[in-house]
Specification:
This protein is α/β, with parallel strands linked by helices. The chain has one domain: P-loop containing nucleotide triphosphate hydrolases (Rossmann fold, 3-Layer(aba) Sandwich), CATH 3.40.50. The protein is 42% helix and 17% strand. It has twelve helices and eight strands. The chain has an eight-stranded mixed sheet, with helices on both faces. Helix 1 packs across helix 11. The longest helix has 16 residues. The radius of gyration is 19 Å and the shape is globular. The structure holds adenosine-5'-triphosphate and magnesium ion (MG). Adenosine-5'-triphosphate binds next to helix 1, strand 7 and helix 9.
């Protein structure tokens, strides 16, 4: 049976969409069968990141009760399946977010991992995203406002019956006064799954004419490497090192001569 994670935060803009999208890609890259669902039905950022903005059927149609979740699935990189959220404001006003739980339950056995990108905070859509999954990953930035809100979201998650699985510290700059992994672990009383550095390659990924998750576009960037480590930790799958060192280079020359 697959594991289902909602990717949540109290404070907005801390990197939930970035983490959900890239972790989903990273686990696909490790060979796992992964579904990524954009449950931020007001903003629909996943569609932009995967260039699915003109998808005819989306999660909105599923939450309106007009389509099946299978009809809203599209192919992403490394065999990932993506359910984008849809951009219609009119549909957004009429959706029933509680239908998400049934939709996820329908496909749970067909995937190793399902990631649900949630909206920030504790509104109806955020609560529905959490309630649709078994475990929550809390994304924080290493500042007091984000951490205070993370504490709140952890309590809310527990109240809706979702197990807080761990936190991810994003946009780490190692500035004086930033909360460390130990601080975050102690404050949230929760495992820290990893830290992702503040990396301009992440921002570029969405700004480019042809956007793509950073793990696909710049796999050797510091953020991509950190995300792959987190995926490895979650799945227990070792990352195969690409043989690119000096010795490999010399060996390749030798092979060519032979
Ligand atoms: N590690 C990082 N380094 C640099 N920029 C980052 C990093 N993580 C996220 N960003 C950037 O920060 C911005 C917000 O990220 P993102 O959209 O993932 O946050 P969010 O929590 O999903 O926001 P919202 O609450 O609005 O849904 C984006 O422009 C993204 O590219
Ligand atoms: Mg988001």
């Amino acid at each position: 049976m697959g594991r289902t994670f909602s990717v949540v935060s109290g404070k907005g803009g801390v990197g939930k969409t970035t983490v959900a999208a890239n972790l989903a890609v990273a686990l696909s890259k490790l060979g796992e069968k992964v579904l990524l669902v954009d449950a931020d039905v007001a903003m629909a950022n996943i569609a932009l990141l995967f260039r699915l903005q003109s998808s005819p059927i989306t999660l909105q149609d599923v939450l309106l009760g007009e389509s099946d979740i299978y009809d809203a699935m599209y192919s992403g990189p490394f065999g990932l399946t993506v359910v984008p959220s849809g951009l219609s404001l009119n549909a957004y006003r009429r959706i029933n977010p509680d239908k998400l739980k049934h939709a996820i339950a329908t496909v749970k056995n067909e995937y190793d991992y399902i990631f649900v990108d949630a909206p920030a905070g504790i509104g109806d859509n955020a609560m529905a995203a959490m309630a649709a999954t078994d475990e929550a990953i809390i994304v924080v930035t290493p500042d007091p406002a984000s951490l205070a809100d993370a504490l709140k979201i952890k309590l809310v998650a527990e109240r809706v019956g979702v197990k807080p699985y761990g936190s991810i510290i994003n946009m780490v700059r190692k500035l004086p006064g930033e909360a460390s992994e130990d601080h975050v672990r102690e404050l949230l009383e929760l495992a820290v799954l990893g830290s992702i550095p503040d990396d301009p390659e992440v921002r570029k990924s969405i700004l480019l004419k042809n956007p793509a998750p950073v793990v696909v576009r710049a796999p050797n960037s510091p953020a991509s490497k950190a995300i792959m480590q987190i995926a490895s930790r979650i799945s227990g799958i070792q990352i195969r090192q690409e043989k690119k060192g000096f010795l490999t280079f010399i060996r390749s020359l030798f092979k060519k001569k032979k």
